[in-house]
C-alpha cells in the first residue's frame, strides 16, 4: 500500500505502509535497528546499509519502506514522541496536594521518556536533521496543552492562552535536563526531580490564584483548545 506524505515532506515520506502483521514486525525491526545504528555510529556516519544489516534484512527491504536513512530516523523520532504524548494524556494526577500531584506527574513523564528509549541519540538527532524540528515544535505544543489541562484540573482560573503560554515555558525546561545529562555523561535521577521541582515552581502562579500576566501570550499553532484532561 502506497503511503501518504509524511510530516517531514515528500523526500522523507514512507514509500509503503505495512498492512500485514509480518510487515509491521519487519518495519518495527528496521526502526529498532535504526535506533541502534544511530546510537552506535551517530547521525552523520549512519547508513541505510548499516541499518538493514542491523535489522537482519536485505537493503531492498529497507528501501521498500524508506527512501533514505533520514526518513527512518524521522519515523523513529515521531513514534517515540507519539508514545510520550499518549502517556501524558493517559496518566492521571494523583490525589492529594496539588503541587505534589503535579510534581509526581512530571516525574512519571520523564521516567517514561527514558523507559521507552528516548535517549541522547534522539535528543541530538533533532539538532542534526532540520526536518525533525517541526515535529519537535508540534510535540512541545501538545505537551504544553497536556500540562495546561492538568493545571486546569488543579484549579487554575487563568485563561487558556495564559495557561498555555506558561506551560510551554515549563515544557522547554525539559531540554535543560538533557543538557545536564550530557554534561554529566549519564541519566542521573536528580535531573528528573530537579525538573519536576522547577516545573511546579514555574506553574505556581497559575495554581495559587495569582493574577495572570498580561499578554500577548503565545498560542498553539496546531490546536485551539486544551487537551482533554481525562
Account of the protein in words:
By secondary structure, the chain is mainly alpha-helical. Helices cover 66% and strands 0% of the residues. It is built from 10 helices and no strands. α1 packs across α4 (69-90) and α2 crosses α3. The model is unreliable at 1-9 and 224-230 (pLDDT under 50).
Short description:
The protein has helices at residues 21-45, 48-55, 59-65, 69-90, 98-115, 120-128, 133-153, 160-172, 174-184, 190-207.
Q: What is the tally of helical segments?
A: 10
Largest sheet: none
Order of helices and strands: HHHHHHHHHH
Q: How confident is the prediction overall: mean pLDDT? A: 89
Attribute tags:
mainly alpha, single chain, 230 residues
Q: Secondary structure elements and their pairing?
A:
Elements: H1 21-45, H2 48-55, H3 59-65, H4 69-90, H5 98-115, H6 120-128, H7 133-153, H8 160-172, H9 174-184, H10 190-207
Helix pairs in contact: 1-2, 1-4, 1-6, 2-3, 4-5, 4-7, 5-10, 7-8, 8-10, 9-10
Amino acid at each position: 500500500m502506497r503511503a501518504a506524505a509524511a510530516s517531514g515532506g515528500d523526500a522523507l515520506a514512507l514509500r509503503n505502509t505495512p498492512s500485514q502483521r509480518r510487515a509491521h514486525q519487519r518495519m518495527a525491526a528496521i526502526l529498532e535497528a535504526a535506533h541502534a545504528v544511530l546510537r552506535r555510529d551517530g547521525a552523520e556516519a549512519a547508513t541505510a546499509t548499516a541499518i538493514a544489516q542491523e535489522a537482519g534484512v536485505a537493503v531492498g527491504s529497507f528501501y521498500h519502506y524508506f527512501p533514505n536513512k533520514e526518513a527512518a530516523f524521522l519515523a523513529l523520532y515521531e513514534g517515540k514522541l507519539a508514545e510520550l504524548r499518549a502517556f501524558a494524556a493517559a496518566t492521571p494526577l494523583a490525589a492529594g496536594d496539588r503541587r505534589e500531584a503535579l510534581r509526581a506527574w512530571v516525574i512519571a513523564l520523564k521516567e517514561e521518556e527514558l523507559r521507552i528509549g528516548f535517549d541522547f541519540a534522539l535528543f541530538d538527532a533533532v539538532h542534526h536533521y532540520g526536518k525533525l524540528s517541526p515535529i519537535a515544535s508540534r510535540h512541545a505544543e501538545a505537551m504544553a496543552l497536556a500540562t495546561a489541562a492538568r493545571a486546569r484540573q488543579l484549579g487554575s482560573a487563568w485563561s487558556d492562552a495564559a495557561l498555555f503560554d506558561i506551560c510551554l515555558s515549563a515544557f522547554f525546561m525539559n531540554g535543560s535536563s538533557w543538557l545536564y545529562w550530557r554534561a554529566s555523561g549519564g541519566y542521573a535521577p536528580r535531573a528528573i526531580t530537579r525538573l519536576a521541582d522547577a516545573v511546579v515552581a514555574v506553574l505556581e502562579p497559575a495554581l495559587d490564584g495569582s493574577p495572570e500576566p498580561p499578554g500577548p501570550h503565545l498560542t498553539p499553532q496546531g490546536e485551539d483548545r486544551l487537551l482533554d484532561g481525562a
